[in-house]
Design brief:
With about 180 residues, the chain is mainly α. The protein has one domain (about 35-55, about 65-165). Helices cover about 55% and strands about 0% of the residues. The protein contains seven helices and two strands; from the N terminus they run H-E-E-H-H-H-H-H-H. It has a two-stranded antiparallel sheet with strand order 1-2. A hairpin with a 5-residue loop joins strand 1 (about 20) and strand 2 (about 25). It binds 2-acetamido-2-deoxy-beta-D-glucopyranose (NAG) (2 copies). It comes from Cladorrhinum samala. Keywords: Signal. This is Small secreted protein.
């Protein structure tokens, strides 16, 4: 009973710092969201990386403190972002349906797709950084993903100010 009440309280206060074993203090920064809430593809191009960081406010200066729950959310969100690119009803389909990247609608969707790649890759960089700091050997994969991320951030910046279109895609960051 006491355990149950304590557990419930910890759920209610999960956004606050929770002491864990040792002297580390673990914080939960993220909550489960639908893709429609964490997509950054709408609006205009140019600021995708900052938009992703605002939607997933984990502290990469202190990766050791990131909780396992937050890592699980980052991973689940990355899977959905990937699906939103390549699976049925995703960006690739939408761009095709719009007549390819050269049409006005297709070009705006392509910019949304690049922003979605920034989302996908930054999520991956985030959890690989955290897992690396927490003892897993992620260095090689992290370097590869950082390179892809830098490439897509560059493409996004090159299109700065131009309209980008999001897609309606089902999925959530529920681990
Ligand atoms: C996600 O979408 C589903 C279906 O529309 C909805 O029932 C659910 O409440 C949404 N989840 C969040 C976290 O908003
Ligand atoms: C992030 O972590 C660093 C290093 O521990 C700390 O100095 C900083 O205050 C943290 N930032 C936030 C927003 O919590």
């Amino acid at each position: 009973m006491l355990f149950k009440a304590t557990f419930l309280l910890s759920l209610l206060t999960s956004s606050l710092a929770l002491p864990i074993s040792g002297n580390a203090v673990e914080k939960r920064a993220l909550s489960v969201q639908n893709y429609s809430q964490f997509t950054v593809s709408g609006g205009v191009a140019g600021n995708a990386l900052a938009e992703v960081n605002a939607k997933f406010p984990i502290n990469l200066s202190d990766p050791k403190s990131v909780s396992a729950e937050d890592v699980a959310i980052l991973k689940a969100a990355r899977v959905v972002a990937e699906s939103a690119e390549v699976d049925a009803g995703g960006f690739n389909d939408a761009i095709k349906a719009a007549g390819g990247q050269k049409t006005t609608a297709g070009a705006a969707l392509q910019r949304g797709k690049i922003k979605n790649k920034v989302l996908k890759l930054q999520l991956q960089v985030m959890f690989l950084t955290v897992e690396g700091a927490q003892g897993k050997d992620t260095a090689k994969q992290l370097a590869a993903e950082q390179k892809k991320l830098a490439n897509n951030v560059k493409l996004d910046k090159e299109a700065a100010g131009k309209p980008s279109t999001a897609i309606n895609f089902q999925g959530s960051s529920q681990p």
